[in-house]
Amino acid sequence: MENVKYDQPRLAINRVYTRGGDKGETSLAGGQRIPKDAMRIDAYGTVDELNAQIGLARDTAQELVAAHPALTQLGAILNRVQHELFNAGSILATLPEDVHPRQARVTEAEIAQLEAEIDKMNEGLPPLRSFVLPGGCRLNAELHVCRTVCRRAERVCVALARSEPVDGEIVRYLNRLSDALFVWSRWASHTLGVAETLWEPNRAASGQRDNRS
Predict the structure, then answer these.
(1) Per the structure, how many domains does the chain have?
(2) What pLDDT is stored for residue 4 in this prediction?
(3) Number of other residues whose CB lies within 10 A of the CB of residue 204
(4) For residues 120 and 99, which has the higher predicted lDDT (pLDDT)?
(5) Helix (H) or strand (E) holding 132
């Protein structure tokens, strides 16, 4: 994979609040002031939300490592993904004309790495005969929450791309990451020895009702 080196962050966070956003506007990386409900803000804000959810799942995995050492690799992957999501947010928070050549971003290398991890972790999983429901264990459920937030981040970025330039590799990365999170949720359950809950349409109230009544 290509070895890309990015500039280190150049900031000093000395004050938590600045009052600069009290009127409903915020600044992009290039200094432009835009409304906080602008779609570009929604895009990198949703990526940030995904990052927080992945942090929660990573901590859950870490808590289980002592009893299930195989989860160490998942924790390392999730940690890397958090850095990659911050890199994606950096680009989304920057208008294309302000992007620096050495600014952090996601590339084909990150997408290829996700694909390799999907293939590797999917190898030992039983084939699915139905859709699965989130749950069975906390780690599985948290990874499914990550998956759904990732899909939302992808949708927001696709919507943004209809009106403004968006790095196409961000959309591809989010698309692949949502697939990875699905596989990781299944792999986590398999590693922990927890049975998956398959979707059974007739478990619904209407499916169990006596049709003769």
Answers:
(1) 1
(2) 58
(3) 9
(4) 120
(5) strand 132-133
